[in-house]
Amino acid sequence: MSTLAPRLLLVALLGSALAFAADAPAPAAPATKPNSTGGNSPHETTSATIGRGGPRVTVTYGRPYAKGRTIWGTLVPWNQPWRMGSDEATTFLTQQPLAIGDKTLPAGIYTLYLVPSEKETTKIAFSSALGGWGIPVNTTADVARFDLKKDTLPTAVEQLTLAVKADAATGGGVLTIAWETTQFSLPFTIKK
Prior knowledge:
This protein has one domain (4-190). It has one helix spanning 4-23, and strands at 32-34, 43-49, 56-62, 90-94, 98-100, 103-105, 108-115, 123-127, 142-147, 149-167, 172-190. Helices cover 10% and strands 44% of the residues.
């Protein structure tokens, strides 16, 4: 079997899940659910239903620990694509199109990666290249890139933490990425 066959199967299965999920009500699941326990970088899925009875937005990623290492600018180099996690590439699923800034991200499944910057704006990329290990990052299949808001956290976060949360004030949601004393965020709304 070629190396392409498992990837095509993954894309087909994820596409089927997306089609099914678009018609089915979102399950009543916890906002964050571990996929594995122990190990150096356990995997986790975080999701939220956006708006009243709206679609579910889901992220699955590997969660490495800092373990005393300097993260930004060292472990995660500045101005270079980073897979935003460990092991398999980080995946993002949205059941409906999202409005992010003045752009629209179509409904679908994406690989996420980050381009962190110390002096400029950090960007998040949504890529159509699915099923990869996460490295090297494939920058040729980007569907969209967005600027992230950067905040300094009062206490350090030991383990990479991504979260998808509903925002009742806007009827949309926010994706956050926190590690060390830095948090990046990307607000979005459901495209009408």
